[in-house]
Amino acid sequence: MRHKFYLETPIYQSHKLFNEQPKNVFYKMDCYQPTNSFKIRGMEELCRHHIGEGKTKFVSSSGGNAGYSLAYVGKQLGVSVKVVVPSTTTKFMIDKIKDLGAKVEVHGNVWDEAHQYALKSAAQEDAVYVSPFDDPLLWKGHASIIDECAQQMEQPDTVIVSVGGGGLLCGVLEGMKKNGWTNTQVITTETTGAASFYESYQANKIVELKEIKTIATSLGAKKITTKALELAKEFTIKPVKVSDATALKASFDFLNEKSVLVEPACGAAISVPYFHPELLAESNNILVIVCGGANTEFNYLYQHFK
After folding, report:
1. Are 248 and 267 in contact (CB under 8 A)?
2. Cβ distance 51 to 74 under 8 Å?
3. Distance (Å, rounded) from C-alpha 196 to C-alpha 24?
């Protein structure tokens, strides 16, 4: 069996929420990954596949976490990695990626512009272009989250997951299909300024947002992958939008509860059992995917929280 770079992460019950509601709320702690987010799962699956075909160069477009995980996996496997980030990416994240030996280029004001530049760059350099979310290899890797959960707990009534471009959602839904969790409800969470899945689900077609305006930059894709919408039709889905303030408060409340600081993008999911228990009225066993995130510069987040 090959050595994995990603970890089998634990599931912790929220004793706080059980005492308050009471509900059995379980956290899948992918914030404990070496790169602090679930992204490493898909990136390892993708890199190993392409390296097996003789590829040694990779170019990614990322607002942070995908590029950071690609840089980590690339360093472990000894391949060349370049990450193209939009200008909204913090110096904090750029430095983290550079520390892993990857080259970083800043291009465009939003992820979509960085994405187009990265596509051209990959073609010119004969490199593999790595999407942050739109690749079946990523979804296959992310599905391992549910494979682990199926061994760690009984089937939940509801799974709560944040959605950016839809890569994690695709992996979670594919994992749920594989493990027979098709009658489990899925609550998707996004911040109001980045709700591309919410709008697409309501319209029953892909809707491209005019702009991204949120502190939860990891959710900042103007449109989701079409596969997310296709898979969602096979499940009972409840899309939810929360404010930046709500997502950020959930991140800090989670810090108080579990001594781990996660991005507001992850806080969006945690905010449902914290602040919207009415959405879980018919559920007793709830699984929250704590997707984590490495963009957790404390002073920056705390300034917005105040």
Report:
1. yes
2. no
3. 30
Structure confidence at residue 163 (pLDDT): 96
pLDDT < 50 stretches in the chain: 1
Architecture of the domain whose range is 11-38+135-305: 3-Layer(aba) Sandwich (3.40)
- Tell me which amino acid residue 73 is: V
CA distances from 131 to 13, 140, 170 (A): 33, 14, 14
Note the pLDDT tens digit of each residue in 222-242.
899 999 999 999 999 999 999
CA distances from 272 to 203, 242, 293 (A): 23, 9, 18
11-38+135-305 and 39-130 share one CATH topology?
Answer: yes
Whole-model pTM: value is: 0.95
- What is the per-residue pLDDT across 9-18, written as a single tens digit (0 to 9) for each? 999 999 999 9
Cβ atoms < 10 Å from Cβ of 36: 26
* Cα 256 from chain centre: 22
CA torsion sign, 272 to 277 to 280 to 283? positive
Q: Which one, of 305, 265, 306, lies nearest residue 289 by Cα?
A: 265
Residue 305: the pLDDT is 61
The domains of the chain are located at 11-38+135-305, 39-130
Instruction: Strand 24-29: give its sheet, edge to edge.
Output: 11-13, 24-29, 285-290, 158-162, 185-191, 237-242
Q: Alpha-carbon Rg of the chain, whole angstroms? A: 18
Architecture of domain 39-130: 3-Layer(aba) Sandwich (3.40)
Query: Tell me, what's the pLDDT at 306?
Result: 59
